[in-house]
């Protein structure tokens, strides 16, 4: 049996969960180690020795090398699998969604969730742009998923993994998914495809 990877992450983080999901889905042996991000776990000297950037998720490979940034990690783990399209244009489309997720989805939906759910701030205290841009992101996804089962056609890819992580938690950021039936159906398809249960 291959020596397992060590995955450092916070179970409340969508960015961390997507790494765990891909490893589990592909049968890659791994050991999960919880890092309490709100409690300062990423600022501990032992963790900073592994990742001076002080961020999770982080993977430590059996040879001692490390890799951070969730989308970089899942691309590496999924290399050669069905989660990455073989066709060049479909692969580029997958990457387009993954870049978009980090720049135009996560900074609004995940950040608003963190402010409301973890910091217990009032919606009135938050920058209105977080809600506005989050709704823009959901509308774009809804339009795409009205036309296809997954973000890159009819097959589950890393684009879906990357985007489902925080989309299925969006209600905790004050985003009502009721007006987005295609997104809700897509979330269920991705959860089924990855073999993960629905988010409570």
TrEMBL record:
The organism's place on the tree of life at top rank: Bacteria
Domain GST C-terminal intervals: 87-200
Single GO MF descriptor: transferase activity
Alphabetic keyword roster: Transferase
Record-annotated GST N-terminal domain positions: 3-85
Pfam families (alphabetical): GST_C, GST_N_2
SUPFAM superfamilies: GST C-terminal domain-like, Thioredoxin-like
Name by which UniProt lists this protein: Glutathione S-transferase
